[in-house]
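Support request from a user on the community tier.

User writes: "When I paste my structure tokens into the form, the page sometimes reloads and wipes my input. The last time it worked, I copied everything first. Here is what I submitted, just in case something in the input itself triggers the reload:"
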């Protein structure tokens, strides 16, 4: 956790004295000094107060070492583009490159998903994932491939490999488009997304399979979002009949039904005429 170093760093960046910050937060200066020196632990109320004062989410204050961010990243943070609120260029992604310093596409198989929930930000864990490249994708963007599990996104088959482009700014999520969404609570899911971040700070996730109900997730619970690019499968999706073909099929069924009715009627008449 980086609470101690972060609040001291933010105070100095704002050119504030301990007395000034303590008064603003209704604290004793000695209490603030204790937080900055790591000899006192803040309560939830104190964390909320610091978050409000600096305009930065609690998650960021606790989990991101702000002293290692660039000036532009800090500027984005101070302008409200907090990765734990909106998802922005502040988000640091663990990644791998090939011998020519080009981005690899890491492969997250179904059996690796459990480890991904804890190792997604660990360069060593990411470095152990299988990698490959797709020559038709841009070498200026970051991609990762996840294995699909279940039938919620039919007609995309179970077991398909879904490739996504890393999305830094979640405000760019387009409602009605598909994304791979990673949260610590739900793991890795592939869904069609409705962007309600500006409305209530949430995303609504929809399955292509109508048997599955949509549900909401708070962006504060989301860790990564990958924009759908393509999928690879060794199975063909179930064919979708064109409208004209469906109409023709229904018409043929009606003709068959009429012939059956006519035959049955003829048979019944023949039975009645038997003495």
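"...and here is what came back when it finally went through:"
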């Amino acid at each position: 956790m980086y609470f101690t170093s972060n609040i001291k760093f933010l105070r100095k960046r704002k050119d504030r004295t301990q007395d000034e910050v303590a008064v603003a937060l209704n604290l004793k200066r000695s209490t603030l000094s204790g937080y900055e020196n790591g000899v006192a632990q803040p309560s939830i109320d104190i964390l909320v107060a610091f978050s409000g004062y600096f305009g930065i989410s609690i998650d960021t204050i606790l989990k991101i070492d702000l002293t290692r961010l660039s000036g532009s990243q800090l500027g984005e943070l101070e302008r409200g583009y907090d990765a734990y609120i909106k998802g922005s260029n502040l988000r640091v992604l663990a990644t791998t490159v090939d011998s020519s310093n080009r981005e690899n596409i890491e492969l997250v198989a179904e059996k690796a998903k459990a480890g991904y929930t804890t190792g997604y930000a660990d360069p060593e864990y990411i470095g152990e994932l299988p990698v490959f490249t797709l020559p038709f994708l841009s070498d200026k963007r970051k991609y990762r491939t996840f294995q699909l599990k279940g039938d919620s996104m039919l007609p995309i088959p179970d077991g398909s490999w879904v490739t996504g482009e890393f999305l830094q700014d979640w405000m760019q999520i387009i409602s009605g488009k598909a994304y791979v969404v990673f949260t610590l609570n739900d793991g890795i899911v592939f869904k069609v997304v409705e962007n309600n971040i500006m409305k209530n700070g949430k995303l609504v996730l929809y399955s292509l399979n109508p048997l599955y109900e949509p549900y909401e997730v708070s962006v504060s619970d989301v860790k990564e979002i990958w924009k759908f690019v393509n999928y690879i499968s060794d199975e063909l999706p179930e064919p979708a009949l064109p409208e004209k073909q469906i109409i023709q099929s229904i018409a043929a069924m009606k003709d068959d039904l009429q012939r059956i009715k006519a035959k049955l009627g003829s048979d019944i008449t023949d039975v009645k005429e038997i003495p």
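Agent notes: The reload is a front-end session timeout and is unrelated to the input. The chain has three domains: 3-78, 105-232, 242-275. Strands lie at 105-108, 131-132, 143-147, 161-166, 177-183, 187-196, 202-206, 215-218, 222-232. Escalated to web team.
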